[in-house]
Amino acid sequence: MTNTQTEQKNGKENQQKEIHEDKLSKEYADAFKQVSDVVWELPASFKKGMQVPARLIATKELLQHIDNNVIEQLTNVACLPGIVRHAYCMADAHSGYGFPIGGVAAFDPEQGIISPGGIGFDINCGMRLVKTNLFLKDVEPVIKPLVDLLFKKVPAGVGGKGFVQLNNNQFTEVMSSGADWCIEQGYGWKADKEQMEENGCITSANPDSVSEKARARGISQLGTLGSGNHYLEIQVADKLFDEKTARLLGIQEGQIMVMVHCGSRGFGHQIGSDYLQLFEGCMRKYKITIPDRELACAPFKSNEGQKYFGAMACAANMAFANRQVILHRIRECFSHVFMKSAEELEMELIYDVCHNIAKIEEHIVDGRKKELVVHRKGATRSFGPSRMTGLFAKTGQPVIIGGSMETGSYLLAGTDESESTWCSTAHGSGRTMSRTQAKRMANGQELQQKMQARGIYVRTASYAGLAEEAGFAYKDISEVVHAMQLAGVSKPVVALRPIGNIKG
Amino acid sequence: MTYTFLEGITRADVAFEAQGKTQEELIEQAGLALQSVQVELSTVKPVIKRKINIAAPTIDNLLYKFLEELVFLKDAEQLVFCKIKANIRTDEKSLYLSCELRGEVINSDTQQLGTDIKAVTLHKYKVEKIDTSAEKNPKEKSYWNAIVVLDI
Questions:
Q1: CB neighbour class for A492 (10 Å; exposed up to 12, middle 13-18, buried from 19)
Q2: Using CB atoms, which residue from B8, B39, B121 is nearest to A294?
Q3: Interatomic CA distance for residues A29 and A485, integer angstroms
Q4: pLDDT digits (tens, 9 = 90+) for A81-127
Q5: CB 3.0–4.6 Å: which of A162, A354, A408, B150 could bond A222 by disulfide?
């Protein structure tokens, strides 16, 4: 018997007694000051080294079940040099490494830092939502062949090679121009560009800052989903919360949508690893001390900081390109199954958002406009109408919140009140349980059958991976969306219910 | 010695503890722990051989670089390994790891695949020599222990 099997066997025997439930400790609960219904603050005096207070968005129910490590990590973020106003954590918070997942922090570009731990290894992990003019009655009869075809055409799981073969020069172009490169090559429509954060291309990319190792890891991965919580999902617009905004975005109740969750794959992961090590070695030079090695950072304006910022943008662009070629594949598959062109099926991109990234943005600080280096790790930009143009000046920026594969997802819209969190909201539902525990409590094959009985057809590259993503391992997404609405930083538009899922 | 997966350290990622009587055994067990997240080891055939050499100033750094190399080989060459044989030579400056890996190319038809690893993190990362000589009837006088969190 292998170690893993022994672990699983022993684990199943001890299942009941080992179930771990998060509960906020009394020390933290007592220290929080309630700022509003859903905003909770720990003062800068709470922990030695904190430069600013830390703020957490949560309903009382969510707050009670916050993992204590989130508070430890959030207050660590508040210790970083040059942090402005507050360290924030969104309602889908769970513990990560360095920053908590759901963490948002802005730094003064002159006095502050940039940290890979505030972005995540999966740089520009993000969400993409595509609409169709199909309804449930059109898709239900063909859901199996449709999901099977998508599973075949969009590689998922460990490793994995994409269908777009790149040489080194082409890969450099992808790093520099992101989704633009794909559209020029025919993997998309010109109109797609307008429906993406940063128009699918971050201009500060510097391919010279990218290691050969990162290139080698990423060059064959364009068009792959990866695994973990990454997925491609066919959904139905189940409930409209804001009919006017939904109508403006071209969404009706019962309409079929496709959602994609993935990022920059091994390319971004290697850039994260490369710079984490570089920053660990250079912090002494800049006299920076940090409470956690995963918060390794460099002054934003330093040579090292700028190199990382340039490399990070390359990974962000690769991620935009990855989601773009996957969109191309989705259009091809729908076109094949429904024997109509993607144009006839009106498969327009609703939006594409990043939720692991650092960007230079202008915000109001002490009554004055100021550029800041905003880190969002497991958090989504939520610009209100006043910061957007065209259609989105009426609706606010679309925000795509990926839920668990069992419970569904949401489309939200950003609000002008989101300035209070550096224009940020949640990114998903947030885990409540470790992967090891979830795997012990669910069997992948059984879960697949149960989901099918409930009308969700799932194909997976790994049954163990499927079990790790069971719905009970996540927070209640509706509660997260509600908390962010009460905080005023985003508003729900549509709830999306899964009917088909591809899991990495 | 062995490896076990840990709970309570991370929600979205995977944490493990590896132990070895020697530094070599620690490297081997930690490597197998990492591989076993990605694939059921018993479904991997040892048909491809890779040799890797890594130098580092400390065992802490050496183990980190070694695990990173395994993640790199999974993406760059699509390789997973089921057998690891490590040898470490030391001088006053560095530790030199010479390692033989045996495994095969990722194949979803023949292997029971698990979850992709994005990166080896430094979160709660710890490598230490545990002295057990004070314990009653210890199996070993000392052993090497590592705690590693993998980003999933």
A1: buried
A2: B121
A3: 23
A4: 999 999 999 999 998 889 999 999 999 999 999 999 999 999 999 99
A5: A162
pLDDT in tens, B86-101: 999 999 999 999 999 9
pTM of the model: 0.94
B6/A158 Cβ within 8 A: no
CATH fold of the domain at B3-151: Archease, Possible Chaperone; Chain: A; domain 1 (3.55.10)
A residues 123-182 lying closer than 8 A (beta carbon) to B = 157-161
Task: Report chain B's mean pLDDT, rounded to a whole number.
Answer: 94
- Whether the CB of B116 is below 8 Å from some CB of chain A: the reply is yes
B38 has a chain A CB within 8 A of its CB: yes
A269 is catalytic: no
Residue B23 is predicted with a pLDDT of 97
The confidence band for B41, taking pLDDT boundaries of 50, 70 and 90, is: very high
pLDDT: is A51 or B137 the higher one? A51
Query: Is residue A2's pLDDT more than 70?
Result: no
Which of A286, A338, A432 has the alpha carbon at shortest distance from A146?
A338
Q: Which pLDDT score is estimated for A436?
A: 85
Whether residue A203 has pLDDT greater than 80:
yes
Region A169-185 average pLDDT:
98
Q: Which domain holds residue A86?
A: 3-503
pLDDT of residue A422: 98
Q: Pull the structure tokens for residue B99.
A: 């390692």
Q: Which residues of A touch B76 (CB under 8 A)?
A: 213, 216-217, 266
Residues 121 through 150 of chain B touching chain A, CB cutoff 8 Å: 121-123, 125, 149
Which residue type, as a one-letter code, is found at position A112? G
Torsion of CA A221, A224, A227, A232, to 10 degrees: 160
Q: What is the CATH number of the domain that holds A254?
A: 3.90.1860.10
* pLDDT tens-digit readout, A334-354: 999 999 999 999 999 999 999
Q: Which residues of B touch A97 (CB under 8 A)?
A: 10, 13, 121-123, 149, 151
Residues 6+ apart with CB under 8 A from A440: A8, A11, A12, A15, A18
**Which of B30, B116, B46 is closest to B81 using CA atoms?**
B46
- Residue B75 carries which DSSP code? H
The phi, psi pair for B96, rounded to 5°, reads: -120, 115
> Residue A21 has what pLDDT?
65
Q: Which of B61, B73, B116 to mutate to test binding with chain A, by most A CBs within 10 Å of its CB? A: B116
Residue A9 pLDDT class (50, 70, 90 cuts): very low
Give the model's confidence band at A20: pLDDT under 50 very low, under 70 low, under 90 confident, else very high.
Answer: low
Token readout for A109 is 């570009």
B123–A2 CB contact, under 8 Å: no
State how many domains chain A has: 1
Q: For A10, which residue in chain B has the nearest alpha carbon?
A: B4
DSSP structure class, residue A223: T
Residues 6+ positions from A302 with CB-CB distance below 8 Å: A282, A286
A213 contact B CB<8A: yes
Query: Cα A51–A52–A58 angle (5° rounding)?
Result: 140
Question: In Å, what is the CA distance from B23 to each residue of B18, B46, B56?
Answer: 11, 23, 13
SS3 B47: coil
